[in-house]
Amino acid sequence: MALATTIFFISLAGLAGLFGFKLWENGRGQMPWQDARRRIDEHAHRTKEIMLVSVVELEKLPPYLLLFISTSIQRGAISFGYLAHWLGRRSHALADMVSHKHRFQRKETNSEFLKKVIEHPMRPENGRVSGV
Prior knowledge:
- The chain has 132 residues and is mainly alpha-helical.
- Helix content is 73%, strand content 0%.
- The chain is built from five helices and no strands.
- It is elongated, with a radius of gyration of 36 Å.
- It starts with a helix and ends in a 13-residue tail after the last helix.
């Protein structure tokens, strides 16, 4: 959003600058860079002619172009699905490869409290099974 806003205000400032430049030209009665403007205008007219001719040619393409685009998008989505599935299956191997603890094995704890908790029986004092 910030990028779009920035581009909008830069474009707005550019338009204001062009209108100000045109107002300055009309006020002074002179036109700087006439040769460059003439070349740019010729280039713009050639570009417009090419665009008009290409519109006629592009009208012939859409059925084939749309088929090509839709097939490309479909194949890309299927390939992305295969990649995501493969990454999901291989995620544990990837995590093991990235981790510095290959083949992690739990060591015995040094804490006396944790040793007592581990040795303590896991049933209530009254002998009932929990939840019943």
